[in-house]
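A reminder from the course coordinator: this example appears on the midterm review sheet, so study it carefully.

Given structure:
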C-alpha cells in the first residue's frame, strides 16, 4: 500500500485544519470547557464544509445526492484533524447518519447515537441532540457483551423485537424514547447520560447496516485518537525546544528525547494501522493504491472495512492517544496538569474515546480470536513444529 496522500487529500486535510484553527482554536477550546454546550453555528459550518456528507454520492449520483462522493480514507483524514483540535460533539454519529436522518448532512440537526450493547449504554451530548438513534442487539465485534442488560428494558414479542433478539437493529427514538440518567464524564467537553430504560419495539426502525456502522464508528473514533496523539507529540516537542532548565532547552536532555521519540513511533504505527483499515474497503478498486488512490475514483460501491483491521487500528490508536498524552504531561512537568495547558484535556478525551465503540480489551480479544482462527485453518502439514492445534 502507498500511504502518500494525493494533492486533493492534502488540500482536504489542510482546509479542515484551517477551518478548525479559525473557528475552534485554543481560546475557543478553553471557553468550551466553561460552557460545553454545542456551538450550533460551528456545526452548520462543518456541514457546509462537507464534514458530514463527505461520503454521500455527488449531486448527479444515485441516492440522496449532494455529497462530496469521497470515501472512508478521506473521512479518516478529516476526523484526524477533528481529534487534533479536540473538537467536541457527536461527530461520529453526525457523519455516519448523514443521508439517513434528514438535516444531519447539513448540520442543521444534531443526532446522537447510543449503542445498547455497550456497558454502560451512554448518550453523548444529550442536551444538544435533536434526535437519538439506538442500536440494539449483537454487540461491537469483540467489544460488547451482548444485548440488553440491567436497567434496559427488553423488547415486546411482536414487531422489531424479533430483530432485537436475532441480531442487530437500529431505531429512531421518538416520544417513547429512552430515559436518560445523569452520568459523570471524565471529559468536561463531552457531557454524557446513561440510558436506563427504553423499549425498541415501540420505536421506528431505521434501515442501516448496524454491524458495518459499528465497525466504521470504531475506525473513525480511532482516527480521532490518532489526531490527538499527533497533537500531543507536537506540543511536547514545541515545549521541549522552548522550555529551558540549567540554561539549556529541556529537549537537550536524553530522557526527554526518548519520551518524544517513543511518542513519534506510536503515532506512526497507529497512523499506518488506521490508514490501512480505511483503505481496505477500497483497495481493490483504487487505481493508485491504498489511501492515495482512494475513494470516488471509479464509482464502485465502497465495501465495509475489515473487522480485524479495525480492531488493530482502534487498539493502536487508543494506546497512542493515552500514552502520548501521559508522556506529554511528563515533558511539560507540573504545568501539564493545569488549565494553562491543553494536554490534560487530550488525556481526558483519550480515556473517553478508548471506551467508545470498541474497548482496548475488546479489540485485543477480537485480534486474539482472529489469530486463533487463522492457526486453526492452517493445514497440519503447514503448522509450525511444536504448535498444537487449538
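Designed residues:
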Amino acid at each position: 500500500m502507498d500511504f502518500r496522500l494525493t494533492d486533493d487529500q492534502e488540500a482536504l486535510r489542510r482546509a479542515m485544519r484551517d477551518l478548525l484553527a479559525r473557528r475552534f482554536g485554543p481560546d475557543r477550546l478553553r471557553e468550551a470547557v466553561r460552557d460545553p454546550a454545542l456551538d450550533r453555528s460551528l456545526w452548520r459550518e462543518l456541514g457546509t464544509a462537507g464534514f458530514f456528507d463527505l461520503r454521500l454520492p455527488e449531486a448527479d449520483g444515485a441516492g440522496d445526492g449532494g455529497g462530496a462522493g469521497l470515501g472512508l480514507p478521506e473521512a479518516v483524514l478529516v476526523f484526524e484533524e477533528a481529534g487534533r483540535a479536540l473538537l467536541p460533539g457527536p461527530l461520529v454519529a453526525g457523519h455516519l447518519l448523514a443521508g439517513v436522518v434528514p438535516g444531519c448532512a447539513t448540520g442543521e440537526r444534531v443526532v446522537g447515537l447510543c449503542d445498547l450493547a455497550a456497558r454502560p449504554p451512554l448518550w453523548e451530548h444529550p442536551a444538544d441532540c435533536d434526535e437519538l438513534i439506538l442500536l440494539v442487539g449483537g454487540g461491537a465485534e469483540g467489544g460488547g457483551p451482548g444485548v440488553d442488560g440491567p436497567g434496559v428494558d427488553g423488547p415486546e414479542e411482536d414487531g422489531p423485537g424479533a430483530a432485537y433478539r436475532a441480531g442487530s437493529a437500529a431505531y429512531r427514538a421518538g416520544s417513547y424514547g429512552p430515559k436518560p440518567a445523569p452520568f459523570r464524564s471524565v471529559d468536561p467537553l463531552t457531557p454524557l447520560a446513561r440510558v436506563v430504560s427504553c423499549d425498541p419495539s415501540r420505536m421506528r426502525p431505521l434501515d442501516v447496516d448496524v454491524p458495518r456502522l459499528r465497525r466504521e464508528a470504531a475506525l473513525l473514533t480511532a482516527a480521532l485518537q490518532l489526531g490527538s496523539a499527533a497533537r500531543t507529540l507536537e506540543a511536547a516537542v514545541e515545549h521541549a525546544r522552548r522550555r529551558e532548565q540549567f540554561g539549556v532547552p529541556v529537549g537537550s536532555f536524553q530522557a526527554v528525547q526518548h519520551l518524544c521519540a517513543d511518542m513519534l513511533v506510536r503515532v506512526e504505527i497507529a497512523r499506518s494501522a488506521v490508514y490501512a483499515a480505511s483503505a481496505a474497503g477500497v483497495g481493490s478498486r483504487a487505481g493508485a493504491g491504498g489511501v492515495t488512490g482512494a475513494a470516488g475514483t471509479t464509482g464502485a460501491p465502497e465495501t465495509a472495512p475489515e473487522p480485524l483491521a479495525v480492531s488493530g487500528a482502534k487498539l493502536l490508536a487508543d494506546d497512542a492517544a493515552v500514552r502520548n498524552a501521559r508522556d506529554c504531561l511528563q515533558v511539560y512537568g507540573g504545568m501539564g496538569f493545569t488549565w494553562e495547558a491543553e494536554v490534560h484535556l487530550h488525556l481526558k478525551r483519550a480515556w473517553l474515546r478508548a471506551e467508545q465503540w470498541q474497548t482496548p480489551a475488546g479489540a485485543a480479544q477480537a485480534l486474539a480470536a482472529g489469530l486463533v482462527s487463522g492457526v486453526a485453518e492452517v493445514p497440519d502439514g503447514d503448522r509450525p513444529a511444536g504448535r498444537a492445534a487449538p
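The first strand starts at residue 111 and ends at 115. The first helix runs from residue 7 to 23.
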